[in-house]
Amino acid sequence: MQLVFATANKNKVNEIQSLIPDSIKLLGLKDIGCTEDIPETQSTIEGNASQKAFYVFEKYKHNCFADDTGLEIEALNGMPGVMSARYAGEQKNGEDNMNKVLEELLGETNRKARFKTVISLVIDGKEMQFEGIVNGTILLEKRGSKGFGYDPIFQPDFEIGKGGSSYAEMELAEKNKMSHRALAVIKLVEYLKLIS
Hints:
Elements: E1 2-5, H1 10-17, E2 25-27, H2 45-60, E3 64-73, H3 94-104, E4 112-123, E5 126-138, E6 154-156, H4 172-178, H5 180-195
């Protein structure tokens, strides 16, 4: 069975290939000749993941899965959510996005937040979705230099009482075992093992 992961990032493809059965060959977007930007115009994380997976399935005739991730902050009514990558503008700048969040939360005592990843898997036109959520807190300031996006201002709840690290202070291997993405991928992998 061949399956396309709707990403141009070869490292992401290799990472998931190492987790799934050998009977499933994983391809990236470049492998199928897809070089265009896949539209992400939906109003939810679930909708974007679905849109990307169906785009590849319908246009390139390949079974496919795609993911979308967002940071949802309770005091900001779930924002930045689906707008996480471009919260501070179309330039998609991580520093600008973090600064905007920190500014909006100035003086706010409720700093509860969660990272959510949704993976949409489309096989023969039928869709399944897998969700991974990690609850946490938005820190008062950036900490750490690892990771990307909002990692320096997000402290996962599973770190409370341990070192209290932000995502950006954790080793990548450690973060990847317990991240929102990892949790969604684990569910996807379990499902692929069942059907392969």
